[in-house]
Amino acid sequence: MDLNSDLGESFGAWRMGDDAAMLDIVTSANVACGFHAGDPAGILDTLRAAAARGVAVGAHVGYPDLVGFGRRNMDPTSRELVADVIYQIGALQGLAAAAGTRVTYVKPHGALYNTIAHDRRQAEDVITALLELDAGLVLMALAGSPLLDWARERGLTVVAEAFADRAYTPGGALVSRREAGAVLHDPEQVADRMLDLVRTGEITAIDGSRVRLQADSICVHGDSPGAVAMARAVRQRLESAGVALTPFTDARTA
């Protein structure tokens, strides 16, 4: 199993999360590309820290929405969205090369992530961007979403992702952050849920029902309060149960 987190999201004097601590825990890092968060110097610091620890790096692409942290819905044209995704990945590839690592996968962020899980037009735009830039990039997407099949149909390798610190609807979608109980904070609860998921292939939805969920990677959001404690609890619980934690892509430079 892979354990990932969204990192590189600090901006100037505004600090977001504890990248150094998270990089000692996770196996893959979804690094911001400057559109929803992150500044070049901070992103480079995070990439260097990831390289030093052998953590795999992914491009955490999003809508151009610094004020809303990429969590506001947008409706760009296909021409814009394809170019925006290529631009963000390309920027991170350059910084990663300078840091002695490489970008091996792409995980969309926030509103873009949730939109393309079900919106085929925007999904196809993101898939097109990856294919036009580097068809070898892996796409990380919401477990159980149609996006996984759409990407496979066009030849991309995909990784299905589950969220440790988010509540699920009975239909397998993430509960909107606007609703009570959408974000989980208790490290022990989060760790128990993820061990249950790994053992059974199911997760308990917000109404208590059980949802079938096949996942290759588990995410703990780096900006969540108590993120480090939650990620550490998940790692310890899984490893204690004999679950090996490894990146799904090779973190080494080519």
Task: Note down, in words, how this protein is organized.
There is one protein chain. The protein is an alpha/beta fold and 254 residues long. The protein has one domain: Glycoside hydrolase/deacetylase (TIM Barrel, Alpha-Beta Barrel). It has eight helices and nine strands. The longest helix is centred in the middle third of the chain and has 22 residues. The two termini are 23 Å apart. The mean pLDDT is 95.
Descriptive tags:
two-stranded antiparallel sheet, 254 residues, seven-stranded parallel β-barrel
Largest sheet: 7 strands, parallel, barrel
User: Order of strands in the sheet with the most strands?
Assistant: 1-2-3-4-5-6-9
Tally of separate domains: 1
Strand content: 15-25%
**Total of helices:** 8
**Could you name the ranges where pLDDT drops below 50 across 5 or more consecutive residues?**
none
The structure class reads alpha/beta
Protein name: 5-oxoprolinase subunit A
Keywords: ATP-binding, Hydrolase, Nucleotide-binding
Catalytic activity: 5-oxo-L-proline + ATP + 2 H2O = L-glutamate + ADP + phosphate + H(+)
Pfam family, one: LamB_YcsF
